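Task 17 of the worksheet. Students: predict the tertiary structure of the chain below and write it out as structure tokens. Keep your answer in the requested format; marks are given for formatting as well as content.
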Amino acid sequence: MSKPLPQRIERGTVVIDATNHVVGRLASAIAKILRDNKNINVIVVNIDRAFIVGSRKMVVNWYARKISLWRTHYNPEKAGPKIPRRPDRIFKRVVRDMLPYKQKEGRLALKRLRVFMAMPPDLKGELYYVPEALTKPRPLYKAVTLEELWRLIDPKAWGRWKEAQMLSEKLKPSTR
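Model answer:
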């Protein structure tokens, strides 16, 4: 079970479970931690279960338009800004844009961030959550998970990832 993120962290590694968090709020909290504390590494797990707030149609159309503008009209050679499609890379880009990444301290802060779509088996440490970034349960709350966004934007890559995930589940030794 995860605990709320403490206000003061001196050093070490902080593991944050992104399940049921709003992407922008979580990214701003993590960017602040990375910017203010040079002795802290942040690991974010289960980022595919984080939410982007808005209706599914609006979010997916906005992201698809963002990708297609660079690939067709302005840039037929497909060289230019690479728009991430996987949830871990989308989140890392969001955090990067909240840091001064063109300066040395911003690049060093970004190197201290690791993002995973699931819980790595060799990861040790206490799981935390960011209370101000959690979604508040409300009726008719419109949100899209990063995994849903990925599934709708790039279905082939999502299908390969899902197959690999199912195979790894089959190959895991049973814990009895």
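Marker's comment: The two ends are 21 Å apart (CA to CA). The first helix runs from residue 23 to 36.
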